[in-house]
Amino acid sequence: MFVIRKSAPARQCARYVATTVSRKPKLLILGSGWAGFRLLRDVDKKIYDVTVVSPRNHFLFTPLLASTTVGTLDFRSIIEHVRSSKHDIHFFQSYCVGIDFKEQTVTCREPATVIDKDNTFTLHYDHLVIAVGAANNTFHIPGVEDYSFFLKELRDARAIRGRIIDIFEKASLPNRTLEEKRKLLHFVIVGGGPTGVEFAAEFSDYFWQDLNKYFPEVPVNEVKITLLEASPHILGAFDQNLVNRAIKSITKQGVYIRTESIVKEVRPGSVLLQDGSVIECGMVVWSTGIGPRRVVSALDVPKTKNGRIIVDSHLKVTRFPNVSALGDCGQIEDMPLAATAQVAQQQGKYLAKRLNAEGKGQQYGPFKFIFRGIMLYAGRNKSVVDTPFLSGYGFVEWIMWRSVYLTSLGSLLNKFQVPAEWLRTLLWGRDITSFGDDERGCLPHHPTIPEPWIDDKKEKEKE
What we know:
The strands form 8 sheets. The protein has a 6-stranded mixed beta sheet. Strands 11-18-12-13-14 form a 5-stranded parallel beta sheet. It has a 3-stranded antiparallel beta sheet with strand order 6-7-8, with no helix packed on it. The chain is α/β, with parallel strands linked by helices and 463 residues long. Helix 2 runs parallel beside helix 10. The longest helix is centred in the middle third of the chain and has 21 residues. It has 13 helices and 26 strands.
């Protein structure tokens, strides 16, 4: 007697088709970020038939993303698979490319592959949650998407890490001139917000504690980190006294901060500023804020000036009470909130409670945001903490910073992995392994970047 078992995808597809005739309302969640993933965890699966659509099959703990760019943490220690949340959900790794509010359908497209280049399908919903997050804001500046690195997704962190090692390996070659090394070893970070400052701090630690030891051929005095900020101050959301203390520490680590420096163009191997000055560099990391995703921009619903969907105090979209928008892509009318993980997570938790109550025929009150504070890592085992109860800068705040994020990790596995990797970094340092290729080349917004200082030589020889 033979027993035929269905494959996992076949079982899930069959399960989804079977539940299309179920009486449970269909809850369709677009996105697996802070808002969508928290909603997925808390919503009652006995009340709703839950489906998640997202181009990535995991939740990313973004506050520790900068630590993965330099090997302090492993990439897998800050992610949690969507399918691991529960088995009583449907998940489809695809992009949402269109929403029909009248027909209550969503059109999805599978990420392009060699086999399926344009595989689209349609899903029906009774309740729709738009939690697709936001895209990197390039401000339409030429060359940003082609010649810079973003720091928003896991693949961005992998690409940055690969490029850093690649640059130091290139600078170690015996035939490199001092001028070529100087250009290669100049790292430019655009954006003086928490992401840019934390990456600058992590990279500075990486160089002084690890790269400096393993690359003796690289001249220490030629490694330069420049942080560009268009406004007069960095870290505008923090208390300025704490910021000033952090700036003193960061500059001592070799990070050069330039405020009121507006980028006009990013070129292969250089950055052109609005004042006409040119900064030659080996790498540009772009972290200047967020903008609306394409699917959100195409929706015919009221939006803010920066493209976020306007919702009421119950997170419902105007004219469509069965549609909610939250996180970075939504904005409550008369309650402007920053696009942060803290806001998105609280909104996801609230919406789950509201939907659970409505599913039982009960009413639920409006959303109320509770500000719990902000914090960031500033290098050399020091952090900035700015909360309603405690504010400070230093080593104790760094312990607090690590403790808060450690306890905030979702899975028990990650709560074991992260402290183990912190201990590994303390005892044996960070990993400097190169896998022989620049991962940036396989990313759609990171094409292969030529080395301009070598190309310039060839052009001069032709002349």
